[in-house]
Amino acid sequence: MLAIASYSTLTVCLIFAGCALIIALLGTKMAGYADTIADRTRFGEALIGSVLLGAGTSISGIVTSTSTAASGAADLSVANAMGGIAAQTMFLALADIFYRRINLEHAAASPVNLDQAATLILLVSLPIMAWAAPPYTILGIHPLTPVLVGVYLVGLHGAHRTHQRPMWLPRLTADTRDEEADEATDLRSLWLIGGLFAVLMVVIGFTGWLVGEAGIELSRRFGISQGVVGALGTAIVTSLPELVTTIAAVRRGALQLAIGGIIGGNMFDALFIASSDIAYRDGSIYNAISERTVFWMALVVVMTAVLLTGLLQRERRGPGGIGWESVLLLGLWTGGAALQIMLG
What we know:
The protein is mainly α. It has helices at 9-40, 44-56, 59-70, 74-98, 104-107, 111-132, 144-164, 190-221, 226-237, 240-252, 255-270, 272-279, 291-313, 324-343. Residues 14-132, 193-341 form the Sodium/calcium exchanger membrane region domain.
């Protein structure tokens, strides 16, 4: 185990910066491989973005949440998950800025992404209900924990079924990006591409964990509170792969992959609470978190609802060439972060 705490502050900063650079470089490659896999299989960009790109870039976050829960830091563990989801949803607004042709949510119309956004709202709302209910555990695990896993799996199955046999299709416009029109340019074996993606996933997972550990140590040395560390510290640094891969996917024109990677990754991130409850040995983690963490849960629900509305309305233009939902997402996240910082 790397003893980051024994290093000087300068060394920890260099570790943080170096790992962030590795994530930026390898994250771009990961987006390219995921796009190729989507083009050469029958699963589509939205579903591949959810399963491969979403879960693959979330490994570092689940390690951080589970390990901190095992050490008894319930607030830090759940705030890391919720703060990560909020930050990654905000990343779509940043990606919208990079896609200058038209509003990103208009161009990337996909019923699969709508399906997954609705599932995400359900996954985050259920823990709020558990927090408000009386504490109850079976063998130290809250009954909601296996339910969350079941909802996630049912949501993935529903998204696959929606992709295979959609009951409705978005209206095509001149600016709609049709993933079926994309052709794979990487002619290497699909098994080789899949293997390379798996290697990058492992490296980014470890590097992201290292970034998180360095961020935690720097936050401790600078005296930042646990709530801010979870929602704005570890959440941001462990979400760097999502930021890089989302912007890389948008620049490649894989718009449904970009949105599917964020929404699907957020669905996977919601399972951090389930793994954290299993690792937390002092009772139900749902009843051990503070109102500040529940605030982030509510903020995630609101931000996802705004994103879902944007995907449904498919506005062509907004202020500065981006959609109104992107402006709202930036404002909501910035307001939530400012409130956390003011509360200390």
